[in-house]
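Sequence only, no structure available. Ideas?
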Amino acid sequence: MSSVRDRLERRLAPRLVTSLARVTWPARISARRRRAKGGEGVLELFFAFDDPCSATALCELSERLAGKRVQILMTPVVGRGIPGDPAVEQKRRYAIVDARRLARRRGRTLVRSEPIDPEQTRFLAEWVAAAQQGPSLESFCVAAISRIWLEDEGPLDEAAFAALWLEHLGSGPPSVGGAAAVAEDERLMKRRGPYDVPAAWVHGRWYFAHDRPAQIAQWLDELGWGRG
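Reply:
I predicted one. Tokens follow.
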């Protein structure tokens, strides 16, 4: 039964998203109200430090949205995907091939050729999930995931990332609350609809963030969240 449900979800979810995407007035009204109160546009980015496509998505979106009245909420996860998926290892290897293609297209170079166990980067997800959102957290995430996938193919040194955290945020990483915060991020991703990373939830729509950065920026522009 679960396999039937999974097939139906994969078949129907894109159609439902396409249908809902044609209804734009609620998001436009909400955006006008947020601006009237001095608010910003919001993009929830669900990503994983062990995922190479998350690296291309985060770097691309951070560049594209710089200067816009948009806050990118860093929402790291560890567990994701379809439970019991027998092809998970093949997908992780294909993600490297896909990310290398995307990185090359956007003037970057993916340096790693082997997948990373999600548990190896859990400490990073827990730090970020437990921290206060803001530009400094975003800059740390960009720097950390770039180091992992675009700069250094060596082992992951927690002490080195702690130094990077200090450089960007001015203090040590959070020491409590990280595991619960990551679990909450994973629950939020399920509620939003995406089943894998990188995914962006943007004012009522979700996108696979590595494939659709231009469309994400366009939607935000349509809602009036252009350059401040």
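The domain at 40-222 is CATH 3.40.30.10 (Glutaredoxin).
Hope that gets you unstuck.
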